[in-house]
Transcriptional regulator, MarR family
Amino acid sequence: MRTFERSLPMSLLKAREAVMKKFIPHLRAHDLSPQQWRVLRALYDSPAGLEMSALSERCFLLMPSLSRIIQNLAARELVMRRIAEHDQRCSIISLHAQGRRLVELMAPESEARYAHITTVFGYGKLELLYELLDELVEKLEAAEQEHHPSSHELLD
Amino acid sequence: MRTFERSLPMSLLKAREAVMKKFIPHLRAHDLSPQQWRVLRALYDSPAGLEMSALSERCFLLMPSLSRIIQNLAARELVMRRIAEHDQRCSIISLHAQGRRLVELMAPESEARYAHITTVFGYGKLELLYELLDELVEKLEAAEQEHHPSSHELLD
DNA sequence: TTTGACAATTTAACTTGTTAACTTTATGCT
DNA sequence: AGCATAAAGTTAACAAGTTAAATTGTCAAA
């Protein structure tokens, strides 16, 4: 059996934790979770607002999580929601003025921390890492389509 | 502001999700969460058993999560706990016979999926990815020590 | 127009992540 | 010995991840 240490999910998790540790104190100082910040950032880039499902995709959050997060952010008046005219089922979420100000207030510090990581790790390596991660996802998802896993016959 | 897409934590998360998707059906078929599996795997490699805190480190789980997971696995008779003689505060967790059998039953399929990922992505790239991830963690943690973050003065 | 399938979200229920508070046992100092 | 302090785990409380079921709105065909 492969040694326990070489676990890809765990290596990815550890790397993620190490990176997040650089951002979390800043977020916490403004009472935001990483997920809440992702939502605000995504909305900042889409001034017209986004439907829940679009937001869910961009922030890589499942709908139930997003639903709760939006309730929280709406209660804090950082975002607002309105119902789409074209389809009453859709809410359209957009940044409230206060939310916009918050993003603008926090962005410089956030960028600075990104810059710090880039410096420490090296620009080239960071780019390489992004490429490898993207390619890994791509290849795994391609493999998804092809042969629907053989193992299910045995196990499910 | 940097484009929202290039977010290192999110890229790492996506990669992790893509990888996990390959393993989760197999785990679910045996009623195990990824965390529970990590614990069983770690214990399999330490037949003498491990203290909670050692297990916590190896599985990269915080104590409260681990505590609950062990309660669950113990109830299912997959692991057992005894109190250390040298220090009454420490529990020592080890695999129950049934847990050992389960690991041995599941390992081949798990290895096969690993092999599949290696093939699809390429052995060299996978090794490179591991190295980059390790180095990233290392560099970020080194940076931790040096200059205790300047930002705290402003924000906390 | 009504039924029936489908789509967008929310709710529910349960597990895990996370921080802080608490319990019990060791250890070190005086 | 006697007391403060630290260490190992657990418990508590709440946010977030995850799956399934429920809710509400849309759309097309009978």
